[in-house]
Write a structure and sequence with these properties.
- The chain has ten helices and twelve strands.
- By secondary structure, it is of the alpha/beta class.
Amino acid sequence: MAALLLSGAMVLSGCAKDTGGGGGSASGQPCETKQPPTGPPLTTSQQEQQAPPDAGQVRAGLAFDIGGRGDGSFNDASVAGLDRAKRDMNLGEVKELDSEANEPESAKLTRLRQLAREGYNPVIAVGYSYADSVSTVSEEFPDTQFAIIDDDTVKQPNVTPLVFAEEKGSFLAGVIAAHKSKTCHIGFVGGVETPLIKKFEAGYVAGAKAAAPDIQIESDYLTPAGDYTGFQDPNKGSEVSSGMLDGGADVLYHAAGASGKGVFSAVKAADAMAIGVDSDQYKQPSVAPFKEVIISSMLKRIDLAVYDYVADFARGDLGAVPDRFNIANGGVTYATSGGKIDDLKPALDAYGAAIARGDIQVPKKP
């Protein structure tokens, strides 16, 4: 019956996949985990601490990805960076514009042009789906500075990419899942099957296998590439997650945007465990009903990237923005809210240090 339920959930997802990852624990017992690597501790190389600039004259525009403010994940992390900039550097007016799932490219172009025409500078595009639109609009408004999150393909002098080593942060999520699973069987739920989300899967699988080589791992995507409703469909997130949980998985990690609410709902119903993404989801009001099952979150510090970008814009020094936000500069890490992984901190820090040193090479593809 469990196999049938899992099969049904996979058909429903449209592009399901099982990565395997070892035979798992035949008796349903916790994994036999390996000792973490040894070596010098991690020392982050964040930008030299400076007093926050005065950004009172800065009017920033923000073009949301689908889900918008309140998604408890990707978009909310970008908002958090601007909210902090308002507190710390008196950031002036901020205008936010929403998007819709599977909207035409013309809608993105209109949104960016509106912000630029109204004098917002910088304009921050949240998500790689804006790449073509940012490329076009940045040429039309050469005196406006643009930033785009999760894309580094736009090669215009007034465009700054804000990109991350998601696979490295997800590696730590995999270590957490392997140590906390009571059945040595875990899962990954991706929103849309794109190269970016596959980086999350690849790191998660690699981390889990590094900590517990015999662990069983399942991966599933809610929609195929091109169908962005996978980031905004909690019902599908719940259905696919329920299939994994019924099949024996007891820790699920998602990279599914607002669909993660459905993942958390299924995990709570199954009395299992979940790992959030992007923001510290244990603290997010929009997923508060499920906080007790969120044992950690992979922190993709979009908030830090947006905050630093605005600060560097106000200083007139956008060249200070890192090429990539990673473990070494604090751009990706893990959350400890709720105290559920306090016992794992030494091991996680040891793995993080080994990744930062280059002793562990984390794959970007499953």
